[in-house]
Amino acid sequence: MLLAPSKLKDHWREQRLFLVRSSVGGGLMVLLTLIVIARLVDLQVFRYEHFSDLSLGNRVRIEALPPIRGLVYDRNGNLLAENLPSYQLELIPEAVSDLDSTLDRLIELDLVDEDDLDRIREDIRRQQRFRPTALRYRLTDEEVARFAVIRQHFPGVDVQARLIRNYPYGTVGVHALGYVGAVSQADLERLDPAQYSGTTHTGKIGVERAEESALHGSVGFRQVLVNAEGRIIQELERTRPVPGHDVTLTLDLELQLAAESALEGRRGAVVAVDPANGHVLALVSQPGYDPNLFAAGISTADYHALRDDRDTPLFNRALRGVYPPGSTIKPVVGLGGLHYGVITPWQRIFCIGHYSLPGSSHRYRDWKKEGHGSVDLTDAIAQSCDVYFYDLAVKLGIDNLQEFLGRFGLGALTGIDIPSEKAGTLPSREWKRARFSRREDQVWYPGETVIAGIGQGYTETTPLQLANMTAILAARGTHYRPMLVASRTDPVTGETEILEPEALPPVTVSDPGFWDRVVEDMVEVVHGERGTARKIGLDAPYRIAGKTGTAQVFTIAQGEEYDAEEVDERLRHHALFIAFAPAEAPRIAVAVVVENGGSGSGTAAPVARQVLDNYLLRPDQ
Amino acid sequence: MLDEPLDRPKPISVAQRVLTGLHLDGPLLFGLLTVSGLGMFVLYSAGAENIDLVVRQGLRVGLAAFVMLVLAQVPPKFLRLWSPWIFLIGIVLLALVLIMGEIGKGAQRWLDIGILRFQPSEIMKLAAPMMAAWYLHDRPLPPTAREALLVLVFVALLPAGLIARQPDLGTALLIAVSGILVVLLAGMSVRLILAFGVLALSAAPLLWFNMHDYQRQRVLTFLNPESDPLGSGYHIIQSQIAIGSGGVFGKGWLNGTQAQLEFLPERSTDFVFAVIGEEFGLLGLATFLTLYVLIVARGLYIASQAQDTFGRLLAGSISLTFFVYVFVNTGMVTGLLPVVGVPLPLVSYGGTSMVTLMAGFGMLMSIHSHRKLVPQ
Lengths: 621, 376
Description:
The complex is a heterodimer of chains A (621) and B (376). Chain A has 621 residues and is of the alpha+beta class. Chain A is built from 25 helices and 23 strands. Chain A has a domain of 364 residues: DD-peptidase/beta-lactamase superfamily (Beta-lactamase, 3-Layer(aba) Sandwich). In chain A, the strands form 7 sheets. In chain A, strands 2, 3, 4, 5, 10, 18 and 19 form a 7-stranded mixed beta sheet that branches. Chain A has a 5-stranded antiparallel beta sheet with strand order 12-11-23-22-21. Chain B is mainly alpha-helical and 376 residues long. Chain B has one domain. In chain B, a hairpin with a 2-residue loop joins strand 1 and strand 2. In chain B, helix 5 runs parallel beside helix 14, helix 10 crosses helix 12 and helix 12 runs antiparallel to helix 13. The relative contact order of chain B is 0.16. At the A-B interface, helix 1, helix 2, helix 3 and strand 1 of A face helix 7, helix 9, helix 10, helix 12 and helix 13 of B.
């Protein structure tokens, strides 16, 4: 025997031990079996009559009672999303003997749309046979009356009053608010199927999606007796659903309307942020679309029209549109130069209209062919001198430049509380190595540093990121995560949960005085004699700090055909403008992108001015 | 122990001789075949008189019986020697399924091997008690605290944890039970049982606070199905109506309205017990329960006659685990226990669990029929 323990094995004792244990097991088995049998006697002998009644004649059915979805308000209590009663035609598959003929007859009566047949059949196939399937949403009163007369010929089909989501302002703020749509198979994999057994719609995007768990509430149910036709005879038991929480946004409806009208007829985006807390005051992406289409069950034709529109109304430009920031980043680059001590505010360079790297003949041109002459930082920002920033970028080097821009949230998600934003690109040596596969593409070239200094080349930012960056400039380094949801209120108890602004690590510079220096330079852009946006500053009753930007368009959106009349317009530069005001104590920071707007000063800056005016010049304030 | 010399030929019936030659155990075989035979009658009714369903179930019973027959021929010594390897393979397959599941997104429990799709967790149903019995085989019993803890952690909790992540909570619990039963049968001291019980209870809140919200929700639904009246709660209400309306004698074969009118969900799988109750009444259910108890009792007898620790512990664990299956299913269908997806053994329509169960009984028969006449 090799194994020591086996010497100690006492077989007789072990067997006795096992006998005791297995006897206990056997005894427990008999006991548990008796418990089951006792339960069976209870069900089958003592409560036989009760269950027999239930199984005979009438049938018990459990119906889900969907909770009422929470409302959405803007920061001033304007209702942005509500629930309206609406009649819909429903069918319970189990109670219909001949589905095909029923549907055919309903189509003949014009109560069911033939285009919806595929969807209806798919819904019926997917659901349990005793659950109602919607045949048609939003019946008119006339249709309800028409069906009421012939109702007895359609067992298993009935008109039901349901609440459907309504967005009273239609397209306004749709890219922030999002919309609800019919619960899809993909949604069900993400959601709790039991909670959604009575719910037909769920948040698909925007606040409606992000706040789904708060807005939805908890499902209720009731036990009902139904007759053979599936109609309810009596309610036996009911557990009320718990309504969803109301959500209040940081959005300012009035400002949102002003921003949308300022951008009317253009493609582009406007994002306005309160620098003191990161509250998003307006979030515009133009063109928009009507979320009510989705809430009511969008037709295939309508959906394809939206999807295939060359102006891409479904595309959220504010969160997902990536544009070269162009000259709008110059104040930050200038601040970086001061911070790293590679320039001083009064140091001047001479701009001759182009810039070349030492030992190279390639000319990087300034937007002003004849040059700006002798410029210091103030002149360079106010007049948007490219040569000054080419030179500054080279002095900083790509590593410092990229690092400093990164502190302002560029090249990373801002972390806004609604889904689907993009991170854009803040190029660096590492980024290039990871981005490209060919060795020669992976090298960072000095020329790429030059154009990175004026926000061209690989650099790409979203309008939201630009607004965030502007807010950090306005708050002199304080950084808040942008937020759209301000609070949630329980409609039953009235309790309100206020969501606090989230402070992110602030941007600090070697001399805090640099902040005011750069802000004053930005004020020069708008109010200076030679400022690029002086037109919007002429009659302003408050001081605006701003910066224009222009981004080159090199490619047209994919899959577009040549259109002689339009091509010109769509090849124009994107116009950008960032601003905050009042300069000395900023209450609002705004970023504007106008696609193919030409120049930042010409098209984007006036939009920003209208937004600022609306917010700062309200009669009641 | 030797007052029943089995291998010595004596003038017995032909049937007895055939059974002995095939290493089969008469009473056990009778019990198993009776239950699955009666089960097929029930399935014919539960499955809306679909003969295909019954034929397929019949083929499955045949396949399962064949697997049982094969395993009955394997001497327990080999079963013991293979135990660690089978266990290892089981763990690897479980990990594989989990990884593939992560890639494929969503619950994935199946491995496809051509003709038969099978769940690696099925292997584990046998591998876990085998491994536990293998580990304790050479050691003096009762096991020390350290030995018991090792078995509980690596043989019961590890595979159960892997399966729970699939996620298949029901199977995970049953496998943990089969491992725990081995340690209990081995004679783990009452003091240790209490200590581990307290430990497990005190670990529960820790686990709770480390769970995701959706996992907590799942546990809550698991503990309180009434909170989920549209999911499992619906099953419970309908199945109680079916059983209760069956009364003492039942509504008769093919006459159960709850089942025939498709009101009872999963009536040919997890809730088949309710169909028996509706159509054959209390008498029918009591008959089935008695048969189950007899099968387990025979299994425990075989275990008590086993000649070594491995055989004893394995046979005991397989028998009692079989009863746990019966109890969990009948408890769930009658509303005594929360709804867990556990089929009624040998009756519920479905593939791999039938084969696994019969394979287990094959091992029992092997343990019983390969006893030596030499005293230890």
